[in-house]
Amino acid sequence: MFRIVKNDADKAKLQECYNREWFETAPMYIICSILHDEEWVRSDGKHHGDIDIAIAVEHLCLAATEQGLATCWVCNFDAEKCKQLFDLGDNEEPAVLIPIGYAADEPKEKKRKMKEEICK
Questions:
Q1: Model confidence pLDDT, tens digit, residues 86-108
Q2: Residue 32: CB atoms within 10 Å
Q3: Which residues make Cβ contacts (< 8 Å) with residue 68, sequence separation at least 6?
Q4: How many Å apart are CA 75 and CA 55, to the nearest integer?
């Protein structure tokens, strides 16, 4: 489930769930949720909601980038507060917040691991 958050009142509520200065500058957000009563379950009982939402969110971020927009995965937010503030059902788990807008003129330098640290 993707919920578009554009109006000021809802943006303010979402900012309560992740209180970071940079996050507040986004003109819109998407709340990406897993619907547990609709997620696919493999025959051995493994639930794929997390996997499916990750695939969908990454495609969304790549498509936004192709259109000249900037995005960021935000997973370190207060999911329970988000669920309450947006009155999400028992079956719905907010998993990722995606701020969408235009990148800063001078973005912060990213710290990346060397490929030797992550590949064998």
A1: 999 999 999 999 999 988 777 67
A2: 22
A3: 102
A4: 15
d(CA 95, CA 60): 14
Q: Spell out the alpha helix ranges (H) of the chain.
A: 8-17, 49-66, 79-85, 115-118
Give CA–CA dist 45/47, Å, rounded: 6
For 64-80, the pLDDT digits (tens) are 999 999 999 999 999 99
Smallest CA-to-CA distance from 1 within 31, 40, 46, 37 is with: 31
Instruction: Collapse the DSSP code of 19 into the 3-class scheme (helix H, G, I; strand E, B; otherwise coil) and give the result.
Output: coil
Please give the C-alpha separations between residue 85 and each of 40, 65, 73, 78, in angstroms, as whole numbers: 27, 29, 20, 11
Helices (H) and strands (E) in the chain, counts: 4, 4
Cβ neighbours around 56 below 10 Å, total: 14
